[in-house]
Amino acid sequence: MAFRRLPTASCILEVERKFRTLNVRELTQHGGIPYFRSLQKLPVETIRDSYYDKSNMLSSAGVWVRKRNGEWQAKIKKGGNFTNSKFQELSHVDEIEALVKRVIGIGGATCSFGLQPVATFCTTRESWIADGEFRIVLDTMDFHHQVGEVELQKVLVSNNGDDTPNELQKQREMQLMDEKLVTFMQTYAWAFSVGEPKGKLTAYFELLRSQDD
């Protein structure tokens, strides 16, 4: 008997918790107690980001659209706050175009979806994979600001014929991911500095305002 394969729909979920900077000069597996079970340092990246918006309509709706190293990306806020964030990520141009059109009523990939660039900067990114699944990132921007985050990503798949996993599935999965992040950061508190982190866009716009004064 042949079985018909149901269409598979998926979405990328990301949960992250930010920190101000590392609390150690160099992050190593045995840099504090308890030790990381494993720690893999990834190659240093140079990232060029341009963020796009229109009269702050996207950011006010919890949507961020950017072109990262020439590739369009979008993040849709699904809960939390700046320090503790939950997102759905989009990377297909048609999905991003549909999202922009849904939020502000315009679209078009050939003209940056009808958006204008609001921030452009370069980032030097150091990153590590800890305990096999937690990605630790430390970003240093070219305007001398630093912020880090620990993140978990998961591809949530629907096999029941729906267009995408429903919101209840997404929220339930992101809650579990966030609980794992909390435990991870509490366990390895020696690695992360205390203090309120400041986002790269917040720091960028503060710098622009100070230069205009």
From TrEMBL:
CYTH domain: residues covered: 14-153
Cofactors demanded by this protein: Mg(2+)
Q: What's in the GO CC field?
A: cytoplasm
Q: Which residues form a coiled coil?
A: none
Q: Main role? A: Hydrolase highly specific for thiamine triphosphate (ThTP).
Q: How does it assemble?
A: Monomer.
Q: What is this protein called?
A: Thiamine-triphosphatase
What is the phylogenetic placement of the source species in the record?
A: Eukaryota, Fungi, Dikarya, Ascomycota, Pezizomycotina
